[in-house]
Write a structure and sequence with these properties.
alpha+beta; two-stranded antiparallel ribbon; 18% helix
């Protein structure tokens, strides 16, 4: 079992989760983070760190967000690992409650 970064992360990209991950399973894209399912040890320490509740256990991902399970696996193969917390984008708070952001994902 793994954890999945869902749509809420798009355009927010808070990196609080990265700072607590014991196995460096987060990968950084232009405007979102993803979790490498092969590296995630299902420890769940990242979940409470996410200010936008974007990280969920795989079994708890809602039906309309299930595409993010495969998307995390796909993008983790091409995006670099991120191991240190960085400042969030300046407009992250404006995006945190916006829904249906998949079309805004930058690869």
């Amino acid at each position: 079992m793994t954890h999945v970064v869902t749509e809420s992360c798009i355009k927010c990209k808070y990196t609080d989760c990265v700072d607590v991950c014991p196995v460096d399973c987060f990968h950084e894209g232009p405007n979102m983070l993803v979790i490498d399912p092969d590296e995630c040890i299902d420890c769940a320490v990242c979940i409470p760190e996410c200010p936008v509740n974007a990280i969920l256990p795989e079994e708890d991902v809602p039906e309309e967000q299930r595409k993010f399970t495969a998307l995390n696996a796909e993008l983790a193969k091409i995006w670099p690992v991120i191991t240190d917390m960085k400042p969030a984008p300046g407009d992250a708070d404006q995006w945190k409650d916006v829904k249906e952001k998949l079309k805004l994902l930058e690869r």
